Amino acid sequence: MDLKEQLENGLKDAIRSGDDxxxxxxxxxISSIRLIEVEKGSRLDDAGVIAVLQKEVKSRQESIAExxxxxxxxxxxxxQAEVVVLEKYLPxxxxxxxxxxxxxxxxxxxxxxxxxxxxxxxxxxxxRLKGRATGDQASQVVRRLLQPT
Length: 149
Description:
mainly alpha; globular; Hypothetical Protein Yqey, Chain: A, domain1
């Protein structure tokens, strides 16, 4: 069963159980996935679905930060609940140490010695992350490792 089917089954379960947060969150996520599938003209694979879910989580985290600035704990709690629902369907995130180890391996493979070669390192590293870390996180680690000491 692919990830999109898991989301659809989760939606059915949420509807049956009356879980409004899960129902609302999964409907929005599935809607975003379908929109992208229509734009592309083909079905998304699991990696594509993970990318959409990560984008949804990032958007909600930004909303949480805005709600925090506006001193709206009610909005923060609702949005945080949505993030929890979405994270159930994402692969387990890499720890900072695991991410750094993968980045070091990619740097060694490419033979990178400075930040000008960062693109080549990222090209090797990103497929290995498979949605377990964001591009921003990876680029920060690679940039830090390639900085001259």
